[in-house]
Design brief:
A hairpin with a 2-residue loop joins β5 and β6. The protein folds into three domains: about 5-35 and about 265-420, no CATH class; about 75-215, no CATH class; about 455-675, Hypothetical protein af1432. α15 (about 385-415) packs antiparallel against α16 and α26 (about 630-645) packs antiparallel against α27. Helix content is about 60%, strand content about 5%. A four-stranded mixed beta sheet has the order 6-5-3-8. The chain starts with a helix and ends in a 7-residue tail after the last helix. It contains 27 helices and ten strands. The chain is mostly helical and about 675 residues long. The chain has helices spanning about 1-10, 10-30, 65-80, 85-100, 110-130, 170-180, 185-195, 205-215, 240-260, 265-290, 295-315, 330-340, 340-355, 365-380, 385-415, 420-435, 435-450, 455-460, 465-475, 475-495, 500-510, 535-555, 560-570, 575-585, 605-620, 630-645, 655-675, and strands at about 55, 60, 80-85, 135, 150-155, 155-160, 165, 200, 220-225, 230.
Length: about 675
Amino acid sequence: MKQRWNELLRNFPLLQRALAVAFTLIVILLFLPKKALFQFEYQPDQPWKHERLLAPFDFSIRKTEAELQQEAEDLKTSQEPVFTYQPERTSEVLDEYRVNTASIPLVSVDSAFADSLRLAIELQLELWMDRGILAQHVSLKGLSPVHTLLLDKQGALKPVRVGEFLSLQKVNDSLQSISAQDSLAAVLAGVALEVLRPNLQFNDPLTQKLLDAKLADILPVEGKVNRGQAIIDQGDIVDAYHLKVLQSLEKEMEERNLLEQGFDLSIVGEMGLAVLLLLLLSAYITLNLPSIHNDPRPVTLSMVLIGISFAACSLAINSANISIYVIPIGIMPLLLRVFYDFRVSIFSFVVLTLLISLFYPNAVEFTVTQVAAISIATLYQASSTRRSRILTTALLVFLGYSLIFTFMSLAQNGNFSALVSLNYGWFAINALLCTLVFPLVYLVEKIFGYISETTLLELGESKQPLLKELAVKAPGTFQHSLQVANLAEKIAGAIGGDPILLRTAAMYHDIGKMNEPQYFIENQLPDHNPHDELEPEESARIIIDHVSKGAELCKQERIPVQIIQFIRTHHGTSKVRYFHRLAQEASTEEVDVSKFSYPGPKPFTKETAILMMADSIEAASRSLKKTDTDSLDKLVEAIITHQVSEGQFEEAPITYSEIQEAKRALKSALRSIYHHRISYD
């Protein structure tokens, strides 16, 4: 068991890469577009690029979702509202009228005439109620008198025009005209008005039932294609009819495969393609970044960005309102380019684009547009995150998308009429969203422990608190650091390396000396050396401790670990030879070499190796009595050769030829520094 755990710990980078790939695969599976891959690529209003397509089996031509929805909407609009006749309401109204009018005292009125008028109004009221008085309802809004309603009378439905019904307003108007005849008519008409109520009531359940029956009768198909029948010929335009037939064939094939296999094997194929592409990307990143082969962060970052981008694009593909071109997947390579080279960032983006194009209808257009446009922006951006460069990068994203899309459309259609102008608006939004790269850089730095060019530039400024303190407490060390930074940049220019990282690291590499600056020669006065009062072992301890103290100080100030690595490695495991020699001369016994050796580690990157060379040469050049060309060249040869013989560069990815080139760069730089000046006195 213990051996197994040790093996797991030893292979942790590999495990983390595997987990990153697994995470991305899970995201892809969760957001996998519902639509399976179709062996033919086609686009509406574009020519059919394949050979003549014959129907492989009989299948129905299915209506589109939009057509089915439109049919349903039409039925809802045309459905006649049902109003139910209520005979009990008629009886109630008439009974109330008789009771109320019977109790009215008819003084000084001919009783026969009064009874006759009362009966006449009652008969008129009965006729109105029998005809039907309609209750106002929301369903009647917008209906003209010629529109038809359904009258539910004694269980039978009868279509009746709206104009044939009476409304309360019409009956009221008629009763008002009767009441104007005389005082008795006014009294009787007033009673009728009080008791009058509509007897046609809107029947919502029955109306909905009728509508549901009609909706259920909507046919999802509108035709049939027989086996062997030609669907479309090469060069034919994919019009609305052909599009519907092709989509029907695609759906039919999905259902048949699922029915035959009992499982959707298309998912297996899609996930298999995703696995292969992601493993290819993981291998490519690992092989192209040999200096950090044990660092799982590059693969992890790429996989996380792929997962997020794929999910966003999948949502856009399944949406009817959002274009996939508004999704700023260009953020991925632009962000990766800040921390890695162009090849890694673009290859990662190509894999992402291929994954998305598997499910996008026009894969060729999408792939060409994305890769070409974003490659232009990524090439320009390089590894810079300065604000002005980010804004220009966003402009290049918009121009790249617009130009490539225009050329692609012209190549496919041969005219400008087929250009979808709305896409240029999506491109503009995409470009604006790509400016999020700048804040995301800081987020990635915090999560993954990276350090960007912008952060390095800020750390290297002399106004930084630690550097200001160094300049005050140890001005000689500060000047030495500046010279080391210049020399390191010269070497990086000759053999490669990150010059900004080197300059910043050079400014901090001796930060530990400011605790006891007087013990370091560059800060000492000519007539006083405090080491004269110390034992060689004590002097060596003070000198060596500036490494650990500098690393600890930077940790406290939260300086990035990448800079601290330069502090720990800039002396490697070399010895403080001067004090070691003094100790040997003063002792008759063997001196413990470990007390005079730096703890290391040795440089393990090209940049840390460069800083070791620059630091050693700059410090040694200050002790030269003669600074002619021959003396400077011998100094460089002697020090670098000694470092090589001690194996200080054996863990760094630097070649013999690069070391020789570094020597030449150092010699040239020293000659420029120490060249003789003409006196103008």
